[in-house]
Amino acid sequence: MSEPYSLKNYQPCESIGFLLKRAGSQLAMTVDRGLAPFDMTHAQLGIFLKLLHGQAKTAADLARELMADTGAMTRMLDRLEEKGFIQRIRSSADRRVIEVSLTTKGQQLGDQMTQVVVDTLNHHLRGFTETEVDQFKDFLRRMIGNA
Fold first, then answer.
1. Which range is least confidently modeled, 5-9, 39-43, 128-132?
2. Is 123 within 8 Å of 69 (Cβ atoms)?
3. Which residues contact 52 (CB under 8 A, 6 or more apart)?
4. Does the pLDDT at position 2 exceed 90?
5. Distance in angstroms (rounded) separating the CA atoms of residues 113 and 94
6. What does pTM read for this prediction?
7. Which pLDDT score is estimated for 91?
């Protein structure tokens, strides 16, 4: 297959990058509206879900998983801790490591906040068949793999 873009056919508003960014921004705005009653933002939810699903245990893990610099991660963890969603504990095995976990409040709200994401995705995927959703995810994974 020839390359999909060239100087002759490239239009910024039809670029995959632009369309992905636009779709992602709209998803984030919808999630933000749904999370407002929980005093949570889409950006903070990424951290919350990584902890909820056991995909990260330290501040460094979270920064790596979410592709954020450690300073930004620290600030987001500060806000989540102030809101009572997470707790940070210095590791007894290595004092340089900060372990992060959900508080009881965070655990109790896990399903409700996840439901906001589920509802948002279902809303934005209206009219897509199950096969199309699977294909779309496959296309995105292939793009990520090509990076």
1. 5-9
2. no
3. 102, 106, 107, 110, 114
4. no
5. 32
6. 0.86
7. 87
- Supply the Cα-derived Rg of the chain in whole angstroms: 18
Let me know if domain 12-146 sits in CATH 1.10.10.10.
yes
The first and second tokens of residue 147, run together, are 């990076």
Q: What residue segments make up the domains of the chain, in order of their start?
A: 12-146
Q: Give the pair of three-digit tokens for residue 7.
A: 């100087």
Segment 12-58, tens digit of pLDDT: 899 999 999 999 999 999 999 999 999 999 999 999 999 999 999 99
Q: How many angstroms separate the CA atoms of 14 and 3, rounded?
A: 15
φ and ψ of 35, to 5 deg: -90, -10
Give the chain as a 3 state SS string. CCCCCCCCCCCHHHCHHHHHHHHHHHHHHHHHHHHHHHCCCHHHHHHHHHHHCCCCCEHHHHHHHCCCCHHHHHHHHHHHHHCCCEEEEECCCCCCCEEEEECHHHHHHHHHHHHHHHHHHHHHCCCCCHHHHHHHHHHHHHHHHHC
- Residue type for 94, please? D
